[in-house]
Amino acid sequence: MSNNGSSIESNPKVQKLNQIIGSDSAGGWEKSWQQGHTPWDLGKPTPIIQHLHQTGTLPSGRTLVPGCGSGYDVVTIACPERFVVGLDISDSAIKKAKELSSSLWNANHFTFLKEDFFTWNPTELFDLIFDYTHEISVGQTMRHLLKPDGELLTLMFPDHAGGPPYKVSVAE
Questions:
Q1: Which residues contact residue 152 at a Cβ distance below 8 angstroms, ignoring those fewer than 6 apart?
Q2: Which of 96, 110, 143, 151 is most open to solvent, judged by the fewest CB atoms within 10 Å of its CB?
Q3: What is the 3-state secondary structure (H, E, C) of the chain?
Q4: How far apart are alpha carbons 33 and 156 in whole angstroms?
Q5: Which among 96, 93, 100, 99 is positioned nearest to 117, based on CA atoms?
């Protein structure tokens, strides 16, 4: 439920996104970026990621941000101790991320890849994965990309029908 008492399914932005994506998730995500309909894009880093980075709480090493979109989280946590790979299925999202970040001081500490998470096979495992778009729909797959002592940091969304974001229970 949102603050005004209506369900998320009745939110016009969510309804439009569901229409754009339809049954063609790869093409639908690209269409949403092309049309500028990206209600999940905060236009800035996710506040908790910014806080964790600033407080030195995040582990160092190779980091993956699947579904990175505009790349705000990628560039926020990239530093000499942490190389970050931003992954997105949308070419438009990757182009925007590169445009926004190519001249930043830490540009040597991150990269953006246009890949389908479900078919991508990285050559190295990760020390950290920050996810708020995939874990709830792919379950164990994400964990297989982590080093044995790696950390998965994921944000979960309210329990609601449909998606995205997709439904998850406490047990999952």
A1: 128, 129, 131, 135, 142, 143, 146
A2: 143
A3: CCCCCCCHHHCHHHHHHHHHHCCCHHHHHHHHHHCCCCCCCCCCCCHHHHHHHHCCCCCCEEEEEECCCCCHHHHHHCECCEEEEEEECCHHHHHHHHHHHCCCCCHHHEEEEECCCCCCCCCCCEEEEEECCCHHHHCHHHHCCEEEEEEEEECCCCCCCCCCCCCCCCCC
A4: 23
A5: 93
Place of tokens 């729909």: 137
pLDDT digits (tens, 9 = 90+) for 37-93: 777 788 899 899 999 999 999 999 999 999 899 999 999 999 999 999 999 989 999
Indicate the DSSP class of residue 8. Answer: G
The C-alpha atoms of residue 20 and residue 26 are separated, in whole angstroms, by: 11
Give bridge partners of residue 10 from the DSSP assignment.
none
Which tokens sit at 148? 């044995």
Beta strands per DSSP E along 72-133: 82-88, 110-114, 126-131
